[in-house]
Specification:
151 residues, mainly alpha, globular
C-alpha cells in the first residue's frame, strides 16, 4: 500500500485506542518534565528513596523505565516502520542523558553514575520485556500460519 492510500483507510478501534493511549502518555510525560507541573505520587517517592539507597545515585525514571528498554527493543527488532514508536521512545532516554550532563550544578561523577545506572537498569528491563513477549510473538506468528493454511 502506498503512502497516499494509507490515509484513506478507515480508522480502526485499536488504532484509535493506541493513539489515545500514546497521547495520554505524552501528556503525562510533558507535565512531569521540569520542576513544576504534575506532582509525584507517594509510591513513586518510596521507590525513589529505595533506588537512592541501593544505587547511591538514582537514575532518571523516564530513562530506565521507558527510553532505554524501548531503544534496546528497537535495536533488537531492527528498523521497520512498525517499530518506529520504539525508536521514538528510545530517543527519550538519549535526550535525557544529554540533559543529565547539561546541569552545571551537578558534579560530573554524579551524572556519570546516574547514566550508568539508567543504562544497566534499562537494559535489564528491556531483556525482561523481550523475554516475556518474544515467546508470545512466536506463538502468535505460528497461529497466523496455521490459520492461513486452513483457509
Amino acid at each position: 500500500m502506498n503512502g497516499q492510500n494509507r490515509y484513506r483507510e478507515p480508522v480502526r478501534n485499536g488504532h484509535l485506542f493506541l493513539g489515545l493511549l500514546f497521547s495520554g502518555i505524552l501528556l503525562v510525560f510533558l507535565l512531569r518534565s521540569g520542576n513544576d507541573g504534575m506532582s509525584v505520587t507517594g509510591l513513586e517517592l518510596a521507590i525513589r528513596t529505595k533506588l537512592d539507597a541501593w544505587l547511591v545515585v538514582r537514575p532518571r525514571t523516564k530513562e530506565f523505565l521507558l527510553g532505554h528498554p524501548a531503544l534496546f527493543l528497537a535495536l533488537y527488532y531492527g528498523y521497520k516502520d512498525k517499530f518506529l514508536p520504539l525508536w521514538v521512545l528510545g530517543a527519550v532516554g538519549q535526550v535525557s542523558i544529554v540533559n543529565t550532563f547539561s546541569h552545571i550544578h551537578t558534579p560530573v561523577l554524579v551524572s556519570l553514575l546516574r547514566t550508568v545506572n539508567g543504562v544497566w537498569l534499562g537494559l535489564a528491563i528491556g531483556l525482561l520485556v523481550l523475554g516475556c513477549f518474544h515467546p508470545l510473538r512466536g506463538c502468535l506468528d505460528k497461529n497466523k500460519v496455521k490459520g492461513n493454511d486452513g483457509a
